[in-house]
Automatic annotation (TrEMBL):
Residues of the CxC2-like cysteine cluster KDZ transposase-associated domain: 85-160
Domain of life: Eukaryota
Pfam family, one: CxC2
Protein name: CxC2-like cysteine cluster KDZ transposase-associated domain-containing protein
Record InterPro entries: CxC2_KDZ-assoc
Amino acid sequence: MDPSTRDNAFRESLLRDSRKVTDYPPACPKCGGNIGNIFRCRTCFFPDVMCLRCMKSRHEGNPLHRIELARRYAPEWKLVDYDILTLRTRLGGHTTEAPCPNGDSVQKFKVIALDGVHHFWIVFCGCKGMSRVAQLEQVRLYAVGENPVEASTFEMARYWEDNVLVVPPWRGGEGGEQRSVE
């Protein structure tokens, strides 16, 4: 890659992250509604800015995304907890528009992922007869216990297995002594 191209890409990245909140239009680019607070997602491929309603609609099924908020009067971006967004992640293929008729109560949930710990609200499906553990496995979360309130992503479980739980090759001898490399 040409160094000037790389420099331009880096400069563009810095420019995007340093834009002032007042540089954004007062209307949401998605719905056209008035924006009081501006939201953006650090994880989405296209980190568009939008209003709260559009951000909630886009991230109902993406609870592991990192959403940031900037207020018009305090123009720095801050990471938002999903409690503020009042997002509910519904399992079993249900959505806000078509909720589970037998849905369990809303439960606070903690997920450990490669990029950190996420806290969000989850609604388990009660109509398909699936256990909570099975519902979590459907969305690639490894549950902790039979009645889980926390889980890890499959990627985090794989990382843990590959880097922590395996015996390093140099510990292969009896008693785990390190072999000489002579």
